[in-house]
Amino acid sequence: MDMTLQISRSLVDQINSETMRSRLEVCGLLLGQRSQVEAIAPCANVHTTPATHFELDPAALFRALRAARGGGSRVIGHYHSHPSGDALPSITDAASAPPDGAFWLIAASSDLTAWRAVHDGAVHGRFDPVTLAIAP
Ligand SMILES: [Zn+2]
């Protein structure tokens, strides 16, 4: 299993600047192939307490999954921010993560970390760390 996630510097900068602008958790989809992020799709955070939780707008997720079936980029994971925490998965994240192999990017301040949701993960029993390979 490839535990490296490829992403471009410009996409990292986009996620970090979206994170820095908001006191609420921001979130969005990672679109691409296998372990390569080709694009991000910022989504509304529709959680009722968005300062400390996130829930991807289901309509945006539905649109992305439909586009993938039509030959577009696949949804390989998502990103969200911890505006007042660190860039590590929370217990809440682990509780809401199905062990489906999806990539999770977590942003805090200017930190960005990558994880994969798996059975028996190293963190909270759900997440394995992933190396983020940032292309210039
Ligand atoms: Zn979180």
From TrEMBL:
<keyword id="KW-0378">Hydrolase</keyword>
<keyword id="KW-0479">Metal-binding</keyword>
<protein>
    <recommendedName>
        <fullName>MPN domain-containing protein</fullName>
    </recommendedName>
</protein>
<dbReference type="GO" id="GO:0006508">
    <property type="term" value="P:proteolysis"/>
</dbReference>
<keyword id="KW-0482">Metalloprotease</keyword>
<keyword id="KW-0862">Zinc</keyword>
<dbReference type="GO" id="GO:0008235">
    <property type="term" value="F:metalloexopeptidase activity"/>
</dbReference>
<keyword id="KW-0645">Protease</keyword>
<dbReference type="Pfam" id="PF14464">
    <property type="entry name" value="Prok-JAB"/>
</dbReference>
<dbReference type="InterPro" id="IPR051929">
    <property type="entry name" value="VirAsm_ModProt"/>
</dbReference>
<dbReference type="GO" id="GO:0008270">
    <property type="term" value="F:zinc ion binding"/>
</dbReference>
<dbReference type="InterPro" id="IPR037518">
    <property type="entry name" value="MPN"/>
</dbReference>
<feature type="domain" description="MPN">
    <location>
        <begin position="1"/>
        <end position="136"/>
    </location>
</feature>
<dbReference type="InterPro" id="IPR028090">
    <property type="entry name" value="JAB_dom_prok"/>
</dbReference>
